[in-house]
Amino acid sequence: MFGSIGMPELIIIFVIALIIFGPRKLPELGKSLGKSIGEFKRASNDLRNTLEEEIRVEEHKPPPLNTSKSDPTAETGQTSDETPKDDPIAQTGQTNDESQTPSASTPATPSKGPS
Fold first, then answer.
1. Quick check: 104 and 110 in contact, CB under 8 A?
2. What is the torsion angle, in degrees rounded to the nearest 10, for the CA atoms of residue 65, residue 68, residue 69 and residue 72?
3. Residue numbers of the domain that contains 41
4. 44 lies in a domain?
5. Domain for residue 47, yes or no?
6. First and final CA of the chain: distance in angstroms?
7. Cα 56 to Cα 51: distance, rounded to the nearest angstrom
8. How far apart are CA 71 and CA 78, in angstroms?
9. What is the pLDDT at residue 1?
10. Which tens digits make up the pLDDT trace of 60-100?
11. What is the pTM of this model?
12. Where are the alpha helices (DSSP H) in the chain?
C-alpha cells in the first residue's frame, strides 16, 4: 500500500518540521530523537543477547534423572505399606486433630461440686 519513503518525501517532511518547530528547536529535536533511537537499539540488542544466552544455557543442561515424580517411593526405596521407623504419628495412629482435641468424656475444666 505505502511504498518506501524517497528523497522528495523526506525533503517535504523536513520543510514541514522546520516550519513547525523553527530553526533553533530542530537540532535539539534531532539530537533527542537520535539518542532515543540509539537507546532503543541498545536495549533490543541486550534483550536479544540475553535470550540467546539463556537458550545456549538450556541446551547445555544435563538431562534430568530417570526417577519418576509420580512414584514417591522411588526416591526413598520404601514400599507403600512400610511405616517409617522415625515417624511417631504413623506409629501411634494419631492424626493432628486427634492429639489436640479433648475427648467428649473428659471435661475440659475440672468441675467443682456445690460449695
1. no
2. -120
3. 27-60
4. yes
5. yes
6. 103
7. 9
8. 11
9. 46
10. 877 777 765 555 555 555 555 555 566 566 556 555 555 55
11. 0.41
12. 7-59, 73-76, 88-92, 96-100
